[in-house]
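[User]
Um, C-alpha cells okay?
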Amino acid sequence: MSAIWYYVENNDRVGPITAEELMGYINDGKLTEKSYVWKKGFDNWKRASEVEEFQVVPEDDLKLEIPEKIEEIDWESVSNSDRIFMVRIGTDRGGQETEYGPFSLAMLKKLFDENRINGKTYIYGKGMINWSFLADIPIFESLFAELPPMIEDDDRRSNIRRPFVAKMFFHDNSQLFEGVCRDVSTGGVQIMVSGVPVKVGEEISLNVHPDNSDYNFVARGKVVRILDGDQGFSLRFVNLNEEARNSIIDYVGN
C-alpha cells in the first residue's frame, strides 16, 4: 500500500503514511474523525470523517465544512502569463481588506515566494462564483511546490461578499473586458483589469454586477486615471441614474 497520506498533529503536518496506518491511528484514538488529512488530488485538507475510506458520517454533519466549489475554470489550461486573477489581502494577516491585481499565475507564485500572499489570501478570477482561499485552488501544490495549509472552520464561515464585477465594451464593441471593482461609491469606481484600451478623458459605458441580480446596473463614466502597472483605471460616473445610485448604496451598505 502506497504511503500517500498526511495528517495534522499539534499544528504540524506529518507523513507520508499509508491509508492502513492512518486508519490504525484513528482506531487507536491517536487521531479522531475531526483530524485533518490530505493526499495528492485533494483541493484542500479534509476532516477524516469526510473521507469515505476512513469513516462515513451523515451528510448534514459536514455541510458547514465543505468549501464552496470553484466553477468554470479549467485550471490546468490557464496560462502562466494571463493576468486574470485578483487577490484580497487583509483577512490573511489580520489587517484591513484590500484588493490587488490583476495577476498571472507566475506573478502569484512570486508574491507567494516573497510571503506577500499565503494560503488564507482570497483569490478571484473570471468564472469563479466567489472569492476563494488560495489554499483551495486545485493547482496549489503544483504552483507553489508545497502542500496547501489547513483552513480552520471559523475562517471558512466568515462572510465574504461576492466581487463587484464590471463588464465593458470599448470602441467598436468587438472586445469584451471584465474587471473587479474596488472603492465603489456613487461618485466613481476603480476597475482592476489588465490590457484595456482606454485613455484619460475617455467616456465608456459599463454593466456592473456582483454576480447576482440584486445590484445590477448600467452606468457611464469618464476615465480620470490609468493605474500603474497596467492594473486598470479609475472612473468618475457621469449622470448616474437613480437605479444605479440605489444599487451602489445598497451594496456598499451590506
User: Anything to note?
Assistant: The domain at 165-253 is CATH 2.40.10.220 (Thrombin, subunit H).
